[in-house]
């Protein structure tokens, strides 16, 4: 009799597990490079340098929305555009990045576009911040929400 109950419990558990939708709040939209290259290494070095500035800007934006500040990891950053502000070989540059801030175990809170001006010094200045998209946090993370995740800051 005990064996039958165990079998029924296992069958029910497996059936419920397979029939319920799986929800993952981990970010999966970033591009995973397939191989290393000189360009990728240079981009990664640049992102290592910019990560503190990115996180400062993101923390400032989300401060009014979340109790816990989100972080941006370099692998959640896509370079959208880069250009020289002055002429060829001038060292006043602009870079635009799409970032995905996360909290906890890589739970995405939104998508944002940041534009930085980088010049000799080095001097890094945030010149534009656009909030592109908000994501609803899972129920067990709702306690960190102050306000709805909406709005733009330029």
Please, what is the average pLDDT? 84
**Number of domain units:** 1
Amino-to-carboxy terminus distance: 68 Å
Helix and strand string, N-terminal first? Answer: HHEEEEEE
Q: How many strands, what sense, and barrel or not for the largest sheet? A: 4 strands, antiparallel
Give the DSSP E fraction (strand runs of 2 or more residues). 25-35%
- Which strand order spans the largest sheet, edge to edge or round the barrel? 1-2-5-6
Structural class: alpha+beta
Radius of gyration, whole Å: 21 Å
What is the β-strand count? 6
**Global geometry:** elongated
Provide the helix percentage.
25-40%
Q: How many helical elements?
A: 2
Uncertain runs: 20-28
State the gist of this model.
β1 (77-84) and β2 form a beta hairpin. By secondary structure, the protein is α+β, with helices and mostly antiparallel strands. The radius of gyration is 21 Å and the shape is elongated.
Primary descriptors:
154 residues, alpha+beta, four-stranded antiparallel beta sheet, 6 strands, 28% helix, 27% strand, DUF3888
